[in-house]
Design a protein that fits this description.
The complex is a heterodimer. Chain A is mostly helical. Chain A is built from 12 helices and 2 strands; from the N terminus they run H-E-E-H-H-H-H-H-H-H-H-H-H-H. Chain A has a two-stranded antiparallel ribbon with strand order 1-2. In chain A, helix 3 packs antiparallel against helix 9, helix 4 packs across helix 7 and helix 7 packs across helix 9. By secondary structure, chain B is an alpha/beta fold. The chains are: A mainly alpha, B alpha/beta.
């Protein structure tokens, strides 16, 4: 009977394992293999180059480091803003502000719009001649100031606003759900002890929300390293050295320049970076588990 | 029972589709069908469909299966990898790399056959310097079709009202920009989100000052060519145009259409662009707007011939693994016949890389035709086609130069360093371009005549 049960388990697991092997393991392993070749992606003519793609990337490709620098910027600046603002709004909404439900839906709304649509919307907001931002700036400055938001000097900073705008709602809802799980009795006890709102937030909300914040940080790190669509559309399909990130550089090398092997090597490095950054973040943010 | 039925239905469908694909390939292999893939861009599909229908009428028993897609590159990649590419295609692809990888059919044998409708070989029907750009290792792997001359466009009505004239020398040009500025108008609109629109300005300035050899050395990424003193001087002149306010404020954040809208709406007097400008802005140009163009002005004391013009081209190819190579090549010969070239120019308001294809050229393009006729030779920024990574770094450099983030010296050094990386890279195939001796010797590319009947 025990043997039959084991067989049944194996039988039921087999389709899922098969699909996982075909759709995930095989592409990952073949990608690792292809990253060792010089290949144009169109012909079967491939030349084995060993680790040369990785050596070039890490030692002789300034654009990779520029792209990584941009990723790190988009990983840190929006992450800090999103965490602070989302926590603030979540705390405000959980304290029973009137119309909290409406705010929650409104803030979450950008999450249901595709990133391409969001980017196009911001693209028009940033337009130097008829854009909303410069339209607001002109009357304030007497028409003297026109900022070219998407020029090489401003594009990185200009990317922060759409990232924050479209991500904020998700993290707000995430933190709000976490806060609503914290028993009210803790806050009641703290109030009796004379703790003010900030002390309650620091001593009750933050420690009990820490696991949720850790998940949020991991998501933001993964998002910051893998970002592609926003940059690609905002840069009109041609990110330059002021806007290039690793994923767009990967695309450029693999698909525009027909360096498929090199592009796959960038993808492998990106995978390692995401994995390492996630592991480090989880390690750094590890705290003693609190049960309540 | 139901799942079994569904699986059987899907299997039948897949078998049916595979059967259709096999049948289509065998039809193509038998020469009864030609499959053509078209990049669906600004030129649309209608002209190519017309050409295909006429081909079918003159070649009874042959069907042309022509399809277009703005991203046909994504459909072509798996077709190439599966060994069943279409018989002819036009796509935004690094075709030089494909030619090197053996994925394209060399068309030299077909080019030496008689052209459609003309008493000459197919090869002789092309503008020599345009066809010369399609050489890879001495073989011709693609044929040029649409041709654009890079010029400075100006608002005719505005120039007339203010008594301004198209400049002939660089000092005249800068003086003109000052006069336009003084009139409260932006002298030049610029497509700053695509900084490569500044490359023809830079290379024309360089050619006018340094002459033919240094220009081709830069195109062929020869050692030191990009740090030539005249290249640095040209980069400085380009930067000065920005500093002196000749380019419209905010232009570095404008797309090509936004900048060109500034031009056709009279907010800027000039715009640098290829001869596709009229067609591209057709739907947004005010009815009473009149545009014309001039070639980049001469540099006083410069070594370069001021008649020389910069061009860019579209290319069509036949894959080496196509089922119907002969059909694909023959369709390209038909597509580039003089009649079709003339029709293309008439319908699409552009030029074509075939001799004499100026019969219906729009009056706005007449100065471009004249510039081509007068040009001692033409050049194309081939290094951008050969080495896409260099093209992107040139774009980056131009954007940084124009916004003042780097100096002209740094710009030239950066490009030279990138060229050095390419020169040293054993994995990157190297290419060279020289204008055909015949074109240079004749003093002009024997192409469009100005006597062509403008509409």
């Amino acid at each position: 009977m025990k043997r039959d049960a084991r067989r049944a388990v194996i039988l039921f697991l087999l389709p899922a394992c098969g699909l996982y092997a075909v759709l995930f393991l095989y592409p990952v392993i073949s990608s690792l293999a292809l990253s060792l070749y010089d290949w144009d992606g169109f012909t079967h003519k491939r030349q084995y180059v060993g680790l040369d793609n990785f050596t070039r990337l890490l030692t002789n490709d300034p654009m990779f480091w520029t792209a990584l620098k941009h990723n790190l910027f988009l990983l840190t600046v929006p992450t800090v803003i999103i965490l602070v603002v989302a926590l603030f709004f979540a705390a405000a909404l959980s304290s029973g502000v009137r119309g909290a439900r409406l705010f929650r839906i409104t803030y979450f709304f950008p999450n249901v719009i595709s990133m391409v649509a969001i980017t196009l919307l911001w693209f028009f907001i940033y337009n130097p001649t008829f854009g909303l931002l410069n339209g607001l700036l002109r009357p304030v400055t007497g028409g003297k100031v026109t900022i070219v938001w998407l020029d090489p000097n401003h594009i990185m900073g200009s990317l922060v606003a759409p990232i924050v705008w479209c991500s904020l709602g998700f993290y707000l809802v995430l933190f709000l759900a976490g806060m609503e799980n914290i028993p009210h009795t803790y806050y009641d006890a703290a109030k009796v002890d004379g703790a003010n709102a900030w002390q309650q937030f620091r001593s009750i909300t933050m420690p009990l929300l820490w696991d949720v914040i850790t998940i949020g940080v991991v998501f933001l790190i993964i998002g910051g390293l893998r970002i592609f669509d926003l940059i690609y559309v905002m840069a009109l399909g041609y990110p330059n050295e002021q806007s290039q990130v690793i994923a767009t550089y990967l695309y450029e090398q693999a698909f525009n320049n027909a360096h498929m092997g090199y592009g796959i090597a960038i993808a492998v490095v990106l995978f390692v970076l995401v994995f390492a950054a996630t592991a480090i973040a989880m390690r750094v943010m590890r705290r003693e588990q609190l049960e309540y | 029972m139901r799942p079994l039925f569904a699986i059987a239905a899907v299997a039948l469908l897949l078998a049916g589709l595979a059967g259709c694909a096999r049948k289509e390939r065998s039809e193509r292999a038998a020469g009864k069908e030609i499959e053509v893939s078209v990049f669906l861009g600004g030129y649309g599909l209608d002209f190519f469909q017309d050409v295909a229908r006429r081909y079918e009428r003159t070649h009874p028993g042959v069907k042309v299966n022509l399809w277009g897609d703005p991203r046909n590159i994504e459909k072509l990649r798996p077709r190439f990898l599966s060994g069943d590419p279409p018989d002819a295609f036009w796509a935004v692809l690094p075709i030089w790399r494909l030619a090197d990888g053996g994925a394209l059919h060399a068309l030299d044998k077909e080019l030496d056959t008689k052209a459609y409708g003309q008493d000459m070989t197919w090869r002789s029907s092309f503008l020599p310097s345009a066809l010369a750009t399609a050489l890879v290792g001495g073989k011709t792997y693609f044929v040029p079709t649409d041709l654009s001359v890079h010029l400075m466009w100006y608002n005719v009505g505005m120039f007339r009202r203010h008594g301004w004239k198209a400049p002939r020398t660089w000092p005249e040009f800068t003086a003109l920009c000052e006069r336009i500025k003084a009139a409260g108008i932006a002298p030049i609109a610029f497509q700053g989100r695509y900084p490569d629109y500044a490359l023809p300005i830079l290379l024309n300035l360089f050619q006018r000052q340094a002459g033919e050899r240094p220009l081709f050395a830069a195109i062929n990424i020869e050692r030191g060519a990009w740090v030539h003193p005249d290249m640095i001087k040209s980069a400085r002149m380009l930067r000065e145009m920005m500093v002196k306010g000749y380019f419209e404020p905010g232009c570095m954040g404008m797309t090509h259409t936004e900048a060109q809208m500034e031009f056709v709406n009279g907010r800027a007097a000039m715009v640098p662009c290829g001869t596709w400008l009229k067609a591209e802005m057709k739907n947004t140009t005010p009815k009473d707007f009149e545009m014309s163009c001039f070639n980049y002005p001469a540099a006083p004391g410069g070594k370069g011939d001021p008649s020389v013009a910069g061009i860019s081209l579209g290319y069509w190819c036949v894959p080496a693994q196509a089922a119907n190579i002969a059909g694909g090549a023959d369709f390209l010969k038909w597509l580039t016949s003089l009649d079709n070239a003339n029709q293309f120019c008439r319908e699409k308001d552009t030029l074509f890389a075939v001799k004499g294809a100026d019969r219906y050229v729009a009056k706005e393009l007449a100065p471009a035709v004249e510039a081509m006729r007068r040009a001692k030779y033409t050049w194309a920024a081939m290094m951008s086609n050969w080495y896409p990574e260099l093209a992107l770094r040139i774009d980056d450099g131009l954007a940084s130069l124009m916004t003042g983030n780097i100096t002209p010296e740094e710009f030239c050094r950066r490009i030279e360093d990138m060229c050095e990386r390419i020169r040293r890279d054993p994995r990157t195939p190297k290419y060279r371009f020289e204008p055909p001796a015949q074109a240079v010797a004749q003093g002009r590319d024997p192409i469009p005549t100005p006597e062509g009947a403008p509409r």
